[in-house]
From TrEMBL, chain A:
Domain DUF3858 intervals: 540-628
Record-linked SUPFAM superfamilies: Cysteine proteinases (SSF54001)
Protein name, as recorded: Transglutaminase-like putative cysteine protease
Transglutaminase-like domain span: 276-377
GO molecular function term, any single one: peptidase activity
Top-rank lineage group of the source organism: Bacteria
Gene3D superfamilies: 2.60.120.1130, 2.60.40.3140, 3.10.620.30
Automatic annotation (TrEMBL), chain B:
SUPFAM superfamilies noted in UniProt: Cysteine proteinases
Domain (DUF3857): residue spans on this chain: 63-212
InterPro entries in the cross-refs: DUF3857, Papain-like_cys_pep_sf, Transglutaminase-like
Keyword check for Nucleotide-binding: no
Species of origin: Saonia flava
The name this protein goes by in its record: Transglutaminase-like putative cysteine protease
An example Gene Ontology biological process: proteolysis
GO MF term list: peptidase activity
Transglutaminase-like domain residues: 298-367
UniProt KW keywords: Hydrolase, Protease, Signal
Signal peptide: 1-20
Pfam entry (one): DUF3857
Length: 634, 647
């Protein structure tokens, strides 16, 4: 039986190796050049899971770079570390006729630390080709082999590299030496694409040809949500010293807890005593947790040092206690340890962080998902979330970095997928009050109060820590519709318990109103003037989304200069549609104009054909926000 | 690297001795820890309480080494100051040699229960990284840092690159309370010092015997107190030009009977570079390109034509590898073979070819904007070379590295300061001004019809010259038409564009023109049967780029320019002009800039002419308030309206 499967396999190899390529750029099918800065001619990944502790990867990538913007798609680099060895990296560069221009061996590649700006140290490294193109188009063929003991994470696959790049041939082949080593494979976004799949005993192959480039359009979902791709994760594996078997998320949690977390939350007795003293006679667990979180926020800071177990294991709580810094893993584990010391339960939680919400896959357990760690504190049948890398966020408030998405709780008895707190539509509220005195010269003096909640709180509360010069820049940009704006004073009130941020600002500006022929023209929407209109596309291709939505309410009182009366108000407007609601009204009260506005933008996923309607909605808003009140001298 | 006779380095004899320090390591006071803000700058997140830098020579196994001892104490006021608890030391390296750091000592101090608590940096929290092929980094971050902490560290850098003394920097992006720096150089080695920045300081010079090297040394000491933070501003050429500091350059070695002079005047600099092998010998080897050039030049009769075709040939055939340089990276032969090279490979090849064609051509060495202004005669601080030709007594500058550069139209980075002409043949070494490009023009012509419903439509034609054209070409390059139009519509206030055409944008010569038809739904407002319309419509600037109250450094526009807008407006039938903005003319002092807004009308036509020009690429901070006011008036004027009323 085993012999038989090998025979099939070898046939299989011959089939795919026999494809030949013409390295000339002329041979690229026309439809692949539309909107493409680069064409991936061949992208062949071959993965062999030889044994529980051995995986071989052979990758060939041939890319024709059409122009300078396409250079980033050449991707002639490979990351490695102590447990992942790179062999036989080489590159050949061809001109547009397919003639060889240059050949590079592994020793010609540049070998540097893979540390980015935000990391103090990492033991990951990267080998890359420093090549200056001398003409466009050119073609670069890049091949390498990788050998690793780790079978816990298996390279995933995308059939298209990104926006503005097309694919001519893409194949992903995976062989495994025994049925237990057959991984879990999930296909995503295959609809509308002709992707071949062949499965034999001990192997699986995916192949796709001629996938046209996708042009990036504003408000579209992230590329990941559009691209046909494969996710691959093993059921049985070995990773950095530990074997594992995962069939469901519970197993992932258990594996992580017992191998990476267990025992790392010990603390020195002195620290335990200190933290107990800190919470003193507080009995309520939630209140205790707040005190501990505050202590962590005041005494530690975020520093990223990535060494050891693939960036998965936190440094011990004792170590963080000594250094008073750590990365998300270290600080979360430390906080969890402190909470434990005062008898409060908390769960270490893996999450995919970023403004773009990305969920953990429900039926696809793996150790490779997530890029950040937060804590969940269970209390009264509810989870309270904290991000221990932030020194400023209120307790229980995540902001738009980790909100509203499926995450993995790691409990001592296993893992569990839950969703973090969401901030949707009117949760993200901004209320602006202002009283304004308008002078005959067109100048204004204003007194403004802005209250923000939800994600709008997240966008405003950092003002509290800003330097004067930065604040001056901020407000002059925030109210850029008011030329000649001067900031007189500001005061902030950050209510962390109710998560409301208050700003009180006094401003003035000369010539806000235009003086024309004894008349004053001014827009009544002084302090929340939406000039945003999404880009126009002649034919919109992609769907679009509003991930969270928000509600803005404004109420301004404008004192007229003496001797002036309202000649005309702009039209009152009220719009309601699938995207949201917009209302604006003007009223006269003695010598005062009362301006009111309400704008609700709803969370939603929309199809491409709705885009124009949304754009028109925003344009209507922008137009109304800019409409002028006319005042005449009596 | 310069080579020195071994005799000199043998003179170094190693003996230890102590240097006096004004502020002792570890003697942190409670007052320092209690301090809540810096009185002189309350916006400072952290402050350098004290910095001591000591640079001197020692003997290390027969070779001289340049040592730099640093002691730094920093007070951290708040969370935004935590970045200053992380130290990153860059160590320069070549294939053979490398700088090193040792004796890292670092402590954090906190006040806990009214007691000073020290935490020492653990040695295994010091990380070393190969950052790139020419430098490595040693990084660490301090333990136990919180708001109010004081951190202190000291370390010793040893450098085998003994004649390259790094610039002493006396100003950071946080303020400095007290700074002491000292440099000891062996007597007979003359280092020229150049001071920069606007913070005054006065070095004290003395001499003594240094037993570490067994020589007399010259000591220069710098003491500065309360140095303000160096703050970022927009439109700045290179902030390093304004940072307080001192730069060192070896100008001569005089240890009788040995004497040698190094760059002292710009003429010396020119000679040093001119006498290098690259400029003296390699530059005139034409055998690698003569055949091809003969064919290329066969059809050109005059020198002008020859120059242009050589320039185009180099641009078309050789790609810049992104590396600056005044000396060859590949050399002429390899550059031609591989079709790529650094700035020197490309522009010296241009010189060589021009010479072969019989044109009077020479290299001009410069320092680009990214490399800051050199400030004093120096070889090391020049990083780039241009080709320079004279035809019929007229000068021509060429830089063939950039795709859209042209003759006398260099990339903006080249216009930094001056250039050093190296004319080996006629033994001429001159300093030439290259600090400002010629004036560029942007012209727009609108034929606009205003409709009764408040919309407008019409034709727009635009024309860009010189650097404005270069900017356009870079922006337009590789964009597909649809994406370009999307951006264009967004930039022009959401008008709808059709029949768009761009001419001459993919070459590098001459002006670029652009034509399109437009429809503007939001062109005007109708209130009470009156139409209010801003006549400059979507061409208006809209926002003052200079909003801040104060300015520290000159404003760098990159190039001088003149924008001219002509708008011919046809008003809808049944409407008459009720009022229009007034014509005005404004000027900046000393003819630095002007703004003209002229509006006329007859029957159903209104004609607007706007001229807006800035005559210098750089405008000093002393006239910033005028500039701010100038833009303010422009914005106000642009927002004024024409009022049309129904007849």
């Amino acid at each position: 039986m085993r012999l038989f499967s090998y025979i099939i396999l070898s046939l299989f190899y011959n089939l795919s190796v026999s494809q030949t390529i013409n390295y000339s750029s002329e041979s690229i099918p026309k439809e692949l050049l539309v909107n493409a800065n680069a064409v991936v001619r061949i992208n062949d990944m071959h993965i062999e899971i030889v044994a529980l502790r051995q995986m071989k990867i052979t990758h060939t990538r041939v890319v024709t770079v059409i122009n300078e913007s396409g250079s980033k798609h050449a991707q002639a680099y490979i990351g490695y570390n102590k447990s992942l060895k790179v062999k036989n990296a080489q590159a050949i560069i061809y001109d547009s006729y397919g003639k060889v221009l240059d050949k590079k061996k592994q020793k010609d590649f540049i070998d540097v630390s893979a540390v980015d700006g935000g990391t103090l140290y990492s033991d990951s490294r990267v080998l890359f080709l420093g090549y200056t193109p001398i003409q466009y188009p050119y073609t670069i063929s890049f091949t390498y082999e990788v050998i690793t003991d780790n079978t816990g994470t298996i390279p995933s696959w995308v059939f298209l590299d990104g926006f503005m790049v097309s694919t001519e041939n893409s194949s992903y082949k995976l062989d495994f030496s025994s049925p237990e080593l057959k991984p879990n494979i999930k296909e995503r976004n295959f609809e509308g694409y002709a992707i071949e799949r062949e499965e034999v005993n001990g192997g699986i192959l995916y192949r796709a040809n001629n996938i046209a480039a996708i042009k990036e359009e504003s408000l579209s979902p992230s590329f990941n949500k559009l691209v046909p791709r494969l996710m691959i994760s093993p059921f049985n594996f070995y990773y950095e010293g530990y074997e594992g078997t995962i069939k469901e998320w519970n197993d992932v949690g258990l594996w992580m807890y017992s191998n990476l977390l267990k025992g790392r939350d010990e603390l020195e007795l002195g620290t335990v005593a200190k933290i107990k003293e800190l919470v003193n006679d507080e009995m309520n667990d939630l209140e205790k947790a707040k005190l501990v979180y505050k202590y962590v926020q005041q005494n530690t800071r975020y520093i990223s040092v990535q060494v050891g177990i693939g960036g998965l294991q936190p440094i011990s709580a004792i170590e963080v206690d000594k250094l008073k810094y750590g990365d998300c893993k270290g600080l979360s584990n430390y906080t969890k340890a402190l909470l434990k010391a005062v008898g409060v339960k908390a769960y270490y939680t893996h999450v995919e962080a970023g403004r773009d919400k990305i969920d953990f896959e429900n039926n696809f357990p793996s150790i490779g998902q997530g890029n950040h760690v937060i804590l969940a504190i269970p209390y009264n049948e509810k989870y309270y979330w904290i991000d221990c890398t932030s020194q400023v966020h209120p307790f229980g408030f995540l902001g738009d970095f980790t909100d509203g998405r499926r995450v993995l709780l790691i409990k001592p008895d296993g893992g569990e997928i839950v969703t973090t707190e969401s901030y949707i539509n009117d949760d993200n509220h901004q209320k602006t009050y202002a009283s304004v005195r308008l002078k005959e010269s067109g100048s204004i003096v204003g007194d403004i109060k802005v209250l923000t909640k939800g994600t709008q709180y997240d966008n405003h509360f950092y003002l509290e820590d800003m330097a004067d010069l930065e604040l001056e820049k901020y407000y002059k940009n925030y109210w850029k519709n008011i030329n000649n704006l001067e900031i007189e004073s500001y005061q902030f009130e950050n209510n962390k318990d109710s998560v409301v941020f208050g700003e009180h600002i006094k401003v003035n500006a000369t010539k806000y109103a235009t003086v024309t022929d004894g008349k004053l023209l001014l827009s009544g929407n002084l302090f929340n003037n939406s000039q945003y209109v999404p880009n126009r596309y002649r034919s919109r291709k992609l769907p679009f989304e509003v991930q969270r939505g928000y509600l803005d309410e404004d109420e301004y009182i404008i004192d007229l200069p003496e001797g002036y009366a309202v000649e005309a108000f702009p039209q009152e407007t009220s719009i309601k549609n699938m995207f949201g609601e917009y209302e604006v009204s003007y009223a006269l009260n003695g010598n005062q104009i009362i301006f009111k506005r309400r704008l609700l933008i709803k969370k939603g996923d929309y199809v491409n054909t709705d885009y124009n309607d949304y754009r028109n909605f925003r344009r209507e808003i922008s137009k109304n926000d800019n409409s002028k009140i006319v005042l005449t001298k009596i | 690297m310069r080579k020195f006779p071994i005799v000199i380095s043998i003179l170094f004899i190693s003996i230890q001795f102590l240097t006096a320090q004004e502020v002792k390591f570890g003697e942190v006071t409670k007052e320092e820890l209690l301090e809540k803000e810096y009185v002189n700058d309350k916006s400072a997140n952290a402050v350098v309480v004290y910095k001591n830098q000591n640079t001197y020579y020692v003997n290390a196994g027969g070779d001289g080494m340049l040592m730099t001892k640093v002691h730094e104490r920093i007070k951290i006021y708040n969370k935004d100051g935590f970045d200053y608890a992380t130290k990153s030391i860059n160590l320069f390296k070549t294939r053979h040699d490398s700088e090193g750091v040792s004796k890292i000592k670092a402590f954090t101090y906190n006040l806990e229960n009214d007691k000073i608590v020290e935490t020492e940096l653990d040695k295994n929290q010091i990380f070393k990284t190969e950052a790139s092929y020419n430098y490595k980094q040693v990084k660490f971050t301090m333990p136990n840092v919180k708001e109010g902490s004081v951190v202190e560290f000291s370390y010793l850098i040893s450098s085998p690159f003994i004649w390259n003394i790094d610039e002493f920097r006396f100003q950071y992006d946080i303020p400095i309370k007290k700074l002491h720096a000292e440099i000891r150089t062996p007597k007979g080695f003359k280092f020229k010092q150049t001071f920069k920045g606007s913070v005054p300081f006065y070095p004290k010079e003395s001499a003594e015997r240094d037993n570490r090297i067994g020589m007399n040394v010259v000591i220069n000491k710098y003491n500065l107190n309360n140095v303000p933070a160096l703050k970022e501003e927009n439109y700045v050429d290179n902030i390093d030009n304004y940072r307080a500091g001192v730069m060192f350059e070896l100008v001569s070695v005089n240890i009788p009977p040995y004497f040698k002079s190094y760059a002292q005047t710009w003429k010396d600099v020119a000679q040093t570079i001119g006498n290098s092998d690259d400029y003296k010998n390699e530059l005139d080897k034409s055998n690698s390109f003569d055949d091809e050039l003969d064919i290329l030049l066969a059809n050109e009769d005059d020198q002008m034509g020859k120059m242009k075709s050589i320039f185009k040939y180099v641009k078309d055939n050789i790609t810049w590898n992104g590396i600056d340089g005044k000396y060859f990276y590949n050399g002429l032969k390899k550059t031609l073979k591989e079709k790529k090279g650094n700035a020197a490979d490309i522009n010296l090849l241009t010189v060589a070819m021009l010479r072969y064609a019989g044109i009077d051509a020479n290299p001009v060495i410069i320092s680009t904007k990214e490399n800051a202004v050199p400030f004093f005669p120096t070889v090391d601080r020049l990083n780039y070379v241009l080709a320079y030709a004279i035809i019929n007594d007229k000068p021509y500058f060429l830089d063939a590295t950039e795709e859209f550069s042209d003759v006398n139209l260099l990339p903006i980075k080249d216009y930094n300061w001056r250039g050093i002409l190296i004319d080996n043949d006629s033994m001429k070494w001159d300093l030439i001004d290259i600090n400002s490009p010629n004036k560029a023009q942007r012209m727009a012509n609108l034929e606009l019809t205003l409709n009764e419903d408040g919309t407008s439509e019409g034709k727009c034609s635009l024309r860009y010259t010189k650097h404005a054209a270069m900017d356009y070409r870079k922006e337009y390059k590789d964009k597909n038409e649809e994406s370009y139009l999307t951006d264009l519509e967004t930039r022009f206030n959401g008008i709808e564009v059709s029949n768009h055409e761009t001419r001459n944008a993919t070459t590098f010569e001459g002006p670029v023109s652009e034509f399109f038809d437009f429809f503007d739904e939001n062109a005007s407002e109708i209130i009470n049967d009156k139409i209010y319309f801003q006549p400059l419509t979507f061409l208006k600037k809209g926002e003052n780029p200079f909003k801040m109250e104060k300015r520290e450094y000159p404003v760098d526009f990159g190039f001088p320019f003149k924008n001219t807008y002509v708008v011919n407006i046809k008003i809808p039938e049944g409407y008459s002009l009720e009022s229009k903005p007034e014509t005005i003319l404004m000027k900046l002092p000393e003819d630095m800039g002007a703004f003209k807004y002229v509006i006329n009308n007859d029957d159903n036509m209104i004609k607007l002419l706007v001229n807006y020009e800035i005559n210098h690429s750089k405008i000093g901070a002393d006239v910033y308030l005028y500039l701010k006011e100038f833009y303010k008036q422009i914005i106000v004027k642009e927002s004024e309206q024409i009022v049309l009323s129904k007849i």
